[in-house]
Model the fold of this input.
Amino acid sequence: MIELSERLQSMEESATIAMSQKSRELRAQGKDVISLSLGEPDFHTPDFIKDAAKQGMDDNFTTYTPVPGYLDLREAISRKFKRDNNLDYSPDQIVVSTGAKQSIANTVLSIVNPGDDVVIPVPYWVSYKEIVRVAEGNVVTVSAGIETDFKITGAQLEAAITPKTKMMIFSTPCNPTGSVYSKEELRDLADVIVKYPNMVVICDEIYEHINFGSKHESLAQFEDVKNQVVTVNGVSKAWAMTGWRLGYIGANTEIAKACSKIQGQFTSGTCSITQRAVIAAMDADPSEVADMVKAFESRRSLVLDALSQIEGVKANVPGGAFYVFPDVSYFYGKEFDGQKIQDANDLAMYLLNEALVALVSGEAFGDPNCIRISYAASEETLTEAMRRLKVALEKLK
Ligand code: PMP
Ligand code: GLU
Done:
């Protein structure tokens, strides 16, 4: 019998992927499951991007690519950083990877030594914690509840910092809460970060364009901390390109080189055709996706309205991304038909079995009081899902 590594055995499976896999299986058995579990736009990649990919194939961009990505792609990303974020990253400070997930893994593996502390605000995106654990880092969580719109302050960050702190990882707009940090809130974090020059901060901005309120703000805009910040972004969400697999970082040259070195041993440069396609996306005006963002905004209202009509559910108003992360702890201790709900995991399973709606337990995001609803689905589907959720939740006594 083959014994798998301790590293693997102590790793948790991605809850978002596990739940979407489960709903796929139930569907294959003929069950009418609505999956609001995976954070994936239900739109198609815009045609002009597909056309650029086809052109790339016709032009025979079919061989290995430079490890950090084609130079003309990195130049296009550099222009994008300037245009959308007012950030100056030269092409040698940009590394293109097989999804933002790999960008984060490269960065963590480049910076974190076994036993180093990595501060992660809760709620966090599922993979941050497991990636840090693979690097044998020590996850230090800082809790931000629904009362503070799930955002941490500089003072909270500072209280979590120890002499072993090497990194912090967070997202804005945030997955799973949709919360968006304002410029002032980022400055408050930067005031602390600047005091710890050995600490690197991953600012994951993959939901940048899916923002319904104020302008998106990047942490790296503050020159005094820019050298410590790794700005992560990608095309999965904004350009509906989850299957194409491309993410990227802007970082100081040393970190960019380190990420490229790791990538050179693990995967090499990402898909050549994808890279040709993404050049077109980078040079396009973000208003190209305005219709998609508008659709997400009206779905957000639909979901929030429906939740407000269910007794016991508390939700914040997410400023971006396509998730709502309501507090559902009111239902813990209740039961229906012999099914007792002790926690968010039980509730997610109950809703899957009873309502045939797949959501993700807040536990996977570090907040056991909540559950994540991804509203990347049509209004018709969402209306039916919310109807089913209300019926099932109201049965719990
Ligand atoms: N960061 C966050 C916050 C995410 O939600 C996701 C999920 N797609 C990623 C990174 C990874 O994105 P991808 O690997 O598809 O670029
Ligand atoms: N990021 C998405 C989510 O949170 C996709 C799944 C994943 O990559 O984990 O659902």
Summary: The longest helix spans residues 290-308.
